[in-house]
Design brief:
Shape: globular
Distance between the termini: 44 Å
Strand order of the largest sheet: 1-2-3-7-5
Number of strands: 7
Helix content: 10-25%
Order of helices and strands: HHHEEEEEEE
Largest sheet: 5 strands, antiparallel
Structural class: alpha+beta
């Protein structure tokens, strides 16, 4: 990055201390991928793809993960039947079951 005041907040030294920084989020997502084989090699099932929401399911053996992403700058809802239950593995930007804030995402383990 070019040197200058505008880019100081992007410095790795500053981002390392903040789990919510782009660097922190990237590290969390890479760790999530390493910890869950379904995200690497699992079967892929597209559940929803519209103007705002992308939802898919990945499964490997007994592990089933539902991943839902809001691709817009506006809040978006997704049908509750996409995720009838399960445990939230990670939520980005304050996402919750059934509701996605702008650029929010959620990964839910089913079963």
């Amino acid at each position: 990055l070019p040197l200058g005041e505008a880019n100081l907040a992007r410095a790795v030294a500053l981002q390392e201390a903040d789990a919510a920084s782009p660097l922190g989020l990237t590290r969390q997502l890479l760790a999530l991928r390493r910890a869950h084989p379904a995200l690497r090699t699992g079967e892929f099932e597209l559940l929803l793809a519209d103007e705002a929401v992308l939802a898919f399911r990945r499964s490997e053996g007994d592990e089933v993960l539902t991943c839902v992403f809001n691709l817009t700058a506006q809040e978006a809802a997704f049908p509750a039947e996409l995720v009838p239950g399960g445990e939230v593995i990670i939520a980005v930007n304050g996402a919750s079951k059934g509701q996605l804030p702008a650029y929010g995402a959620i990964v839910i383990a089913i079963g």
